[in-house]
Amino acid sequence: MSKMKKVVVIGGTGLIGSKAVKLLQDAGHEAIVASSRNGINAYTGEGLADALAGADAVIDVSNMMSFDTAVITDFFGTSSRNLTSAEQATGVRHHVALSIVNADQLAANPYMAGKLAQEQTVASSGQAYTIVRATQFHEFIETLAGAYSADGVVNVPDIDFQPIAADDVAAALVEAALGEPKNGTVDLAGPERATFESFIRAYLGSKSDARPVAADAAVDYFGAPVVAGSLVPGGGYIKGRVTVAEWLKA
After folding, report:
1. Which of 36, 51, 132 is nearest to 86 (CA)?
2. How far apart are the two ends of the chain, measured CA to CA in Å?
3. 166: which of 16, 28, 97, 246 lies 20 to 30 Å off by Cα?
4. Which domains does the chain have, with CATH numbers?
5. Residue closest to 231 by CA, chosen among 109, 76, 115, 103
6. Would you write out the chain's pLDDT as a tens digit for each of its 250 residues?
7. Rounded to an integer, what distance in angstroms lies between the CA atom of residue 148 and that of residue 218?
8. Are 30 and 5 in contact (CB under 8 A)?
9. Cα(228)–Cα(158) distance, rounded to whole angstroms?
10. Are 9 and 21 within 8 A, CB to CB?
11. 215, 201 in Cβ contact below 8 A?
């Protein structure tokens, strides 16, 4: 059996973080659930030194939602700076951050700008790291359908889509944290690639939602202009296992 490790999960009570914590614990590792709810705050630095003491790795899945570019870039940049500094001070060997596929190409979207700031802060910190860039989650397809819905029609960008289950994202983050730092990025995507339109239509069909779905090349992705490959990996990537149909059935 491999050496048991201590891994601190920043944002450990959220969708991905809670799954990562369970995977670590089920495998016999020590998982520290770090969130502002229990006095550990990456943005302010509160509680970081104590939480990180003796840790082998940190998985950062902290999150915030804002449509203000300055606010969200400050959050991700400051949090990452505090984390990597505290990791170096306490001897943590590996920082793992969750980002988004092609975040650097979509920075006209405020959230993507924030993730890009996170990536750049981590990469320039001097701390050993791995950035896992994931595609959109299965769990957010409903939100996407709602966001692009108006007057009874769902009008989406005319682009490719390759969503991934949150379970697969958590598993990839845990595998990264238990492995050696890449000091670079790795892409992660679901097992199926098709049009954005087809995934939205399949999701709505599974819910007996009769709203028509159309694809329009003029529609952007929450403020960011997109082309066919904007939301999918352009090269090699780690492939998840769970299809949308399997996720819907589960």
Report:
1. 51
2. 32
3. 28
4. 6-249 (3.40.50.720)
5. 103
6. 358 999 999 999 999 999 999 999 999 999 999 998 899 999 999 999 999 999 999 999 999 988 899 999 999 999 999 999 999 999 999 999 999 999 999 999 999 999 999 999 999 999 999 999 999 999 999 999 999 999 999 999 999 999 999 999 999 999 999 999 999 999 999 999 999 999 999 999 999 999 999 999 999 999 999 999 999 999 999 999 999 999 999 8
7. 13
8. yes
9. 7
10. yes
11. no
Contact between 21 and 177 under an 8 Å Cβ cutoff? The reply is: no
Give Dmax over CA atoms of the chain in angstroms.
Answer: 57
Amino acid at 235: G
Structure-token pair, residue 110: 């405020």
Task: Kindly give, in sequence order, each residue whose CB lies less than 8 Å from that of residue 26, ignoring residues fewer than 6 positions away.
Answer: none
Name the strand (E) or helix (H) holding 131: strand 129-134
Query: Which amino acid type is present at position 148?
Result: Y
Cα gap 69→37, rounded to integer Å: 25
Eight-class DSSP state of 3: P
How much is the pTM? 0.96
Phi-psi region of 109 (alpha: psi -120 to 50; beta: other; left: phi over 0): beta
Beta strand segments in the chain, E:
6-10, 30-34, 57-60, 94-100, 129-134, 149-150, 153-157, 160-161, 185-189, 194-195, 213-216, 238-239
